[in-house]
Amino acid sequence: MMLVVAAAALFAGAAASSTVMLVSGWRYAPVRSFEVTVELADSATEEHKAAVRSELDDVPGEVVFESREEALTRFRKEWKDDPERVAGVQVESMSESFRLTSEGREFDCAPIPRIRELPGVERLWVVMQPTASRPGAEIGC
Q1: Is the dihedral of CA 56, 97, 70, 80 positive or negative?
Q2: In 10 A of CB 61, how many CB atoms?
Q3: DSSP class of 30
Q4: DSSP structure string for 48-116
Q5: Domain 32-139 belongs to what topology?
Q6: Burial environment of residue 116 by CB neighbours within 10 A (0 to 12, 13 to 18, 19 or more)
Q7: 114 vs 55: CA distance, rounded Å
Q8: What is the model's pLDDT at position 86?
């Protein structure tokens, strides 16, 4: 009998705490993947690239450098179903870039303005990648 009362009390407590959390606005936040792309200016020097890499290394995640050739290969792969778009694109029209992939329930934008202002940075954007049940979005950092 004591075991039944204890189990009922445990169930009632769990139900009550779940109800309070949901009513107060708490929602489960799934782990998402975020991609930071830092597009480099044509005038970016090796010192500029090293400074950008150093700042990105302070952000949790994996940093990868993408050359112009790799960017063109990725572009052609992404747009393989649109031959007109791919036809005239040359390696010279692509930019070198860094890509940082990070995972978490949220993304900390604190270091982004500092990276955006570094010499040699042309553009920077952060994208929350889509999941099976949620759309992706560019984050305004």
Answers
A1: positive
A2: 18
A3: -
A4: HHHHHHHHHHTSSSEEEEE-HHHHHHHHHHHTTT-HHHHHT--GGGS--EEEEEEEESS---TTHHHHH
A5: Alpha-Beta Plaits (3.30.70)
A6: middle
A7: 8
A8: 85
pLDDT band at 88 (very low <50, low <70, confident <90, very high): confident
pLDDT digits (tens, 9 = 90+) for 19-65: 555 566 666 778 899 999 999 999 999 999 999 999 999 999 999 99
pLDDT digits (tens, 9 = 90+) for 98-109: 999 999 999 999
Residue 99 · residue 6 · CB < 8 Å: no
For 43, the 3-state DSSP assignment is coil
Q: Report the predicted TM-score, pTM, of the whole model to 2 decimal places.
A: 0.74
